[in-house]
Specification:
The protein is an alpha/beta fold. The relative contact order is 0.06. This is Helicase ATP-binding domain-containing protein.
Length: about 1400
Amino acid sequence: MAQGYKGFAQIAREANKRLEELKKQKTMDPLLEERGFIGPNDITSAEYAWEMRKTEYQQIKAIEKTGSPMVLNHADGKQHEYLITEAIKAGKEIPEEVLQDYPWLKAEMQELETVKESESISQTEQPNLLMGDAWFEENPTKILGEQYETTDRFGKPTTKVKGSMDDVITGINVPSVDVPVTHVEALESNIKDDVEHLVKDKVYKENIEQVVQKTKKERAEKELQKAINPDAPMVVAKDNFSFDDIMQQYNKGLTEDEIKAWVWYKRKTNGYNDETVVLAKKNGWSKYVVPLNEVGKQLDKWLKAGVVCYYNGDYMPSVLYYAENIYKRQSVLLREKETIIQTFGEEQYNRQWKGLEAVKPPKLTLTDPRKENRLFIKPTSSFGKEIRVGALTDGTAFTEYNSTTGKWQEGTTDLTDAFKQWLRNQPKDDFKKSSAWDIISYYIDGRTPSRHYDKEEKLRIRQNAKQEGDTFFVEFLAKGLTREDQLKIEQLWNERYNGYVEINYFKIPVAFTCSATFKNKPLFIRPAQREGIGFISVHGSGCIAYDVGVGKTMTAILSLAQALESGQCKRPFIVVPNQTYKNWLSELRGVVEKGQVTLTGVLPQYQVMDLYNLGRDYLEPLMDENGTMQPVPEYSISVLTYEGFNRLAFNDDTWDTIGNELFDILNQGTEEEREKVKLFEKIEEMMGRGVKGGTANIEELGFDYMVVDEAHAMKKSFTQVKGEQQGSGKRERAPYEIKSGQPSMTALRGFMISQYILRNNKMRNVLLLTATPFTNSPLEIYSMLALIGYQQLEKSGVKNIKEFFDTYIKTSLELVINAKLKPERKEIVMGFANLIALQSLIFKFITYKTGEDANIQRPNKIVLPMVNKREGDQVIALSPEEQISTNLPLTPTQRGFMQDVELYVTGRTSLTNFCVNPMGMEEESEDTSKGDAIDESNMSADEEEGARILRGLSFARQLALSPYLYACNPDKNPSYDQYVDSSPKLKYIMECIKSVKRFHEMRGEDVSGQVIYMNAGVSFFPLIREYLIKKIGFKDSEIGIIKSGLSAAKKEGIKEKFLAGTIKVLIGSATIKEGINLQNKATTLYNCWLDWNPTDVKQLEGRIWRFGNRYANVRIVNPLMEDSVDTFIFQKLEEKTSRINEIWYRAGKTNALNLEEFNPAELKMGLVTDPKALAELLLIEEREQIQDEINSLKNQQNVLTDIKSARDNFNSNIEHVNQAVERYKPQKTTDKHGNPIKVQARSIETVLKIYKDYLEDETTQTTYRDQNIYDTVRKANATLKRGLEQVLEPKGYDINFDFEQVNGRINTEIEEKQRILEERTGTEAVSQKAEEIIKDREQKGYKPKSVAERVEEFASLNDKVLTELMVYGGESEKATDTKRAKKGEVLESSADKLDKIRKLRGAFKQMQERLQRIKALKKAA
């Protein structure tokens, strides 16, 4: 009752207050009838302004001013509200839908009615403390802030309150406070969140609830007014680019006929969501619409001019015809050859054929001399099971049962089964680590080795079977198949996977209306942006993967303009990170301060809906009087954060449809019913809880186009590969054991919502933006491609993620060391197969541009160590005096520890001898996948060595940074100076920072920013900070630390202060690698912890190496420890960076991309530094090479034995075969006149073929022995041919060789090789090699340099790096820096206060728990 009474009292008070305001307003407009009359129009049947909606009124006025209904003017909206207000005063009848645009006016009308009913309340009654402000007037000390006088929106004087969070906290006097977890978490993501969660006490909460809800309502009204109320100042660019301006300026290579043909084709193929938009006379595209009665004549003209081509019984624009799947185009062209020649002439056919030949991608074959360029098929792939082949080149034939004749006859089998049969016929000595049985059973058939093998042995058997199986399959495809079958496979594979040619997107017409200025400067659309708009226009969906500074945002905004003006959408929405939200709003609509346009936006003519996190404040303006959500206005652009995106919901119908679809896709096959139910329940639990419990249904909001910024946040929707369905209903064993943790909620939601948008918009209207769409993870690649267009992937021949892996990914089971420094065997990606085809697939969905591609001005990047320079396409080594090295010597302590590691790596000591309790590294990581743990006692010798090497790698990385991070060092509590002085790497960085500081100070200028990155030793960051303050001379406020665990506000505050220049040195962990831009005043980034992934390194460098840096040069410094693993990792990073770039390199130099993490032999070179030990390692390769030659000779002896046996079998049975052949098909010995003729001996192949016909002839009588003899002779002949080619002929022998003689000769060769082995790799050879290493070092003048000397080299670049400026500072820059610094202070201060609240809540919670325990103990006593 009390709550209901208070609610009525508040309504009555507000209504009375509003009534008084209305009474004081001016009288109604006497010219209302004249001003509000519009007359007949093309937009609505209404003739008066108050009878039509705001958008309709704006469109009518826009047509009068610009000729287009798309360029809406906010001043017209202002006039419309004025007319509605005056009409209400005049008592005009206002339609309900018109009032939906102005909910506050609608509320006023309702409140007036309420006031009339409540006027009987006595004015002499004693004031009720629950009425209005009465209680606060009686208790002014309870006001949570400071009162001040101002005016309301109607100009009436009023009293308001302002205050901070501290005023709220200190003003609420309650006996006990319990801050719920939800409040702290909400405030950390958004400082503006409400205060009602601060207290639990019911009485106080009810009172505060009213204040908060009223404040929310007022704020919601203000936000709505800012968006659509004419009283609020809006951004209207003074100058706009018209549709014709854009058409003329950015379509210069296109003829009018090409544009018309494009519009005709889009209409014909149902390419417009709403065709009426482009048909409207005021729309710019309408002038390019060809009337239906003229289409035939135009098509004839366009065909002759080459504007269109004849395809599949119809016409297609040439820009599309000579692109995409060229093999398919040629196939259709051949089928229609006769029709084209008869109808249009042979010239037309030849023109199209030559055009296709000119652009067709080079065909990948099975027999390319360069194995790395051959097309790659896996024996377990669905493609391998789909293709059928006939007899093999070794004579193996396949039979199938003929039900008509009742006999078995020659037939075909699938490629995989053919490979099995071929594999069984291979010599045993060709298998190095496996056998035909192992490959067939444990790789192709996917069976598990029997129980008598232990876990490690099973993994090793499977690994060896897979490796050798793939190798043999490549050989089988190249040599085991007939040329006819090879050509068939090559044609089908290339048509399916390798036929894509990219469209020339500059030939796709683009046009729209936009501002002529952006951020107060002339708007210029760069070529890369123009190409991106064309890309999205063609495909409807895609990913703009542009490097930082190329213009992803601008490309997306202009693509939206194109989509809106071409009827592709009406209500697009953009999902953005919280930190870029305001940037998006300002770039769309501009910035207005104090009624003036301070920065112009790109699309000021469109209403921008500020939906932020889809909280109640932001959704309330979209509610009608019944609380029902209404769609956002047509031709508006909505912007929301990822938090808001995760609140989007589906209605039940959509959930049922999309939920089932997602299940089918994630499941990728049908489970047994019980397992199927379990999986579906899991998906429903993941998605239903968030999606169905959202705050707004996407159907109600009406969204029809999705743009996602930083879309790599959605790259974890597919995180594993499942086996396919078998005929029994069960699923095959998972063919790949590569996982990347659990799917992220954001990624799953993104996939579902993208599917909703695609399905409802003709598989179009999803646009992703990211500079790093994926690393080299195939799971991420597939997830991103599926997000854009899963159905298009299916059409491209990739039906599921297993097929994607089968076609493009190379994997292997390898030993790795986990975070606990324990070895485990884990399947890893070794590289990409069919790289050229993979590129074609990727470029269907993603357009990629680097900063260099787009000629973006970025600082010059100087990477240290600097040992090379680039001149054109050549990399030239610098002379020793030109080089800037970062190599640093190990300290005696580090060297002593490294000696232990060396002994362990080389197997000369055990782990327990020098490391009692090795701890894992303190390193931030997102990798959640797990391998199979291994019992080290069951390892083979090779695996023990691999485990030692990998663990040694971990130890060496720790030691290279600091001995205090070394897992086996028991001392973990250094002082700040001990921590830095014990690490040459950290000492070097401190002194380099000091040199930069001094250089600036001597010139009397601000010190530039420097960033220290390390993803290990995060707990020691405060010691580095202390050193910088006490030893280098920085102020406490000049050092910032960003690491995981900090709130978003805290990180943002530190970032803003660094950008403003108040923080001079920033120490960061992996947290800074993405989304935190630090470029404004930064000159140096020190990378203390080299990551294995080049993409991570690129992201890290991009923090300061980006457009907008004040300095013309930046240094990326990689301190490297001599005699450590640092050098190896740095070298590998360079190599891998080059290889990953090949994914995006379109020339297609090679068809295979190797991404192996490391070679154990190479790793040992980086770990071992002793000349003698290094000599032994260097000679291992030569020793293994000679040993392989010895093993090869021994294998030849085995082969000779097989050849001798085959020769004996052949000779003992061939006579029987020859006699049967002569009886069945005797050769002619005389001519028709009876004269003797010379008889040419039949080849053995001919004899065997005739003998086979003899066996299959129904008129002949044969026995089982005849069939057995045939098999024996055929196999013996194949062995003899192979032996002759591989062993006998290279040694100068023929098939009649003397076995004892040849075998003796091979024995002699083996003895000679063994002598060479000892001579070149024995004890004396090792000593000689060690001396050569020492001499080589002396000749190269190698001399270790101290930390101080390396710092001098670094400082020698200061004059160049720190004086050349890109953007010169001015007064505006100083003002911006001041604002940034102030903003940073506020954010960081607020975050610190929130942190205190969180700690207070934790303390309260602990106290409550203790009290409960005490009560429980007392009760128990």
